[in-house]
Amino acid sequence: MEEQSRLRALVIEDDPDAAEFARIALERFAGMEVVVTFTAEQALDVLTGQRFDAIVSDIELPGRSGLDILPQVRELAPGVPVIILTAHGVVSYAVEALRRDADEFLVKPVAPTDLARRVEELAEAARRRRARGRSVVLAVGAHPDDVEIGIGATLAAHAAAGDRVVILTLSRGAVGGEVAARHEEALAAAAVIGARLVHLDFADTVLDPAAGVITAIEEVVGEVRPDRVYTHSAHDRHQDHRAVHEAVQVAARSVAGLWCFQSPSCTVEFRPNRFIDVGGFVETKLRMLAAYASQQHRDYMQPDLVRATARYWSRFSPAREVEPLETIRAAELVGVPEPMLEVAEEHA
Q: Where do the CATH 3.40.50.2300 domains begin and end in the chain?
């Protein structure tokens, strides 16, 4: 059992003496198994083939810094706490470390017992989260790229928390491009976060809840048994988006949590009351959107607009980057942990 196995830590430190200090502290005072690497590239190589419970990294490393590689570390080791340990305790470093989703910022010199205690605390907490089990998340969109535009960063955060993510896309998007290419793009986008893609072939622009769409969604819901469903809002100019919203309301009636995301075609009636902190995951969302090469001419696919939208919605939240959701149903999920997402809610 994982709970009984020895905790493992990866130390990324180019100074041999500092690396040895961290190794001894973690082995002696936390009983951890420790692997030491001296460069960012070595660390990324090790992370591709080994699993760890905590990562302790310096900032100033040869070549790439410990902060520069944080997004890749998060992809290779989702849910694993990252502790920045540096001799440079300047405020700008601390702010940047936390902005890039580091879990802790420690300044040398630090007592070996204090280092071991904090790393062990974070590692054990991460193990407890994993031991509670994963949620299953289903995101339903009318066309390829709908889901990624609406909640790509939220899905990336779910995946990083260890949740199983399934994307259901109901049409091949024939009106917006060549269907074979759009299918391959959808597969590539899902692969960025390790999501499963279910891609159906309903006719684009004429989706009808009563013409098999409800049944198709019900079949997927019955198979994957999601704990949470995300889909289009009713406040949308596109008829396919409204049709999918209506169909999901029926097909996912047994699912405890149901939320609606914002599409570029949403009207001013879109009124979110749940704001997901997606700090550190917007860049992952951009990689998902970049997979849709055939759609890059559209304004809403441009990185500057995606980033600006996430910043705009942060005005309703303490977070810096946010994706907004309308809550349809948010019943308590017995035995299912919340994902590692910070949220803020507003109530009318």
A: 2-131
Convert the pLDDT of each residue in 112-139 to its tens digit.
Answer: 999 999 999 999 888 876 766 678 999 9
pLDDT in tens, 195-231: 999 999 999 999 999 999 999 999 999 999 998 999 9
Would the pTM count as exceeding 0.85?
no
Q: Residue 92 pLDDT more than 90?
A: no
- Of 66-70, 135-139, 143-147, minimum mean pLDDT range: 66-70
Q: Which residues contact 107 (CB under 8 A, 6 or more apart)?
A: 86, 87, 88, 89
CATH superfamily of 136-345: LmbE-like (3.40.50.10320)
Domain with CATH 3.40.50.10320 in the chain: 136-345
CATH of 2-131, one of 2.70.170.10, 3.30.70.20, 3.40.50.720, 3.40.50.2300: 3.40.50.2300
pLDDT of residue 63: 87
